[in-house]
Please model this.
Amino acid sequence: MTQKLYLEDLKTGDVFKSGEYAITAEEIKAFAGRYDPQPFHLDEEAARDTFFQGLAASGWHTCAITMRLFVGSVPIAGGLIGAGSDVSWSQPTRPGDTLHVDSTILDITPSRSKPDRGIVTIQSDTINQRGELCQRAVSRVLAFKRG
Model:
């Protein structure tokens, strides 16, 4: 089991690397059918004539995969409690892609009003098997001090 990290354990520049996650066409279609039912997420044939020129995962699906990998690789005590995030997608996630997430601490801001905690700003890059950036999320996460 990974040691849980508290606010005082974290440093600007710390990097966390996740495991990998392989995505299939079936998974892309199932997610889209439930949450983002657009032709370029649902049907290979229809997707060919769209901006994406082929089946592409919903950006929200990529976010969900990123969150799963983020939770498994950044062991902040008390969990990853979000306080906001900015997300951008530089290219689509495709069937057969294997994703991993590299997360880097950009900033740590202790709370002025609540001395037992702070906000940690983390950049999480979701990268495919070719080393291409698919998504970047810059998130603010609540972190607590020890006891």
